[in-house]
Amino acid sequence: MKTKFAILILLSVIIISCKSEPYKVNSSQDSDVESISISDTLSLKLIDNKKWVANAETHEGITKMDSIISAFKTDNRSDYKTLGKNLSKQTGYIIKHCSMKGEPHDQLHVVLIPMLDEISILREEDSVEKRKLALDNLEQLISAYFKYFKV
User: Fold this and answer.
1) What average pLDDT values come out for the chain (151 residues) when binned by 10 residues?
2) What are the extents of the domains in the chain?
3) Quick check: 54 and 149 in contact, CB under 8 A?
4) Computed from CA positions of residues 6, 4, 2, 125, in that sequence, does the dihedral angle turn out positive or negative?
């Protein structure tokens, strides 16, 4: 229950702080859409095989998250709660400095929201197996970010 409440609060903060604006699609534009499944209900896509442009702070935060995970695995660490706290600092930085708008902003949420869920598992779950699975999922989401976004 505590986890669900924390996720709900985080999602509210994301929506309020990101300064999202409606995205208008030019109906005469011919777009190729490539779609991958991140979760059961969300889909990340490219338009005309081009990466979305992320703001520098978002890219910096995701890059730091990738480095934190790499160091955790390289050093063969097992303190998943600390890992989750360190990753949460980076997602907080990303959310606080969000300046993206329109479709790129919406596409970022496709990877960022599931990242928040996985980080919550790292911070709060007692099962080592569930934590390992969350870490694997988080690595896949970070990989998807780099595949679909650029600065």
Assistant:
1) 53 47 32 45 81 97 98 95 97 96 94 96 97 97 96 94
2) 53-151
3) yes
4) negative
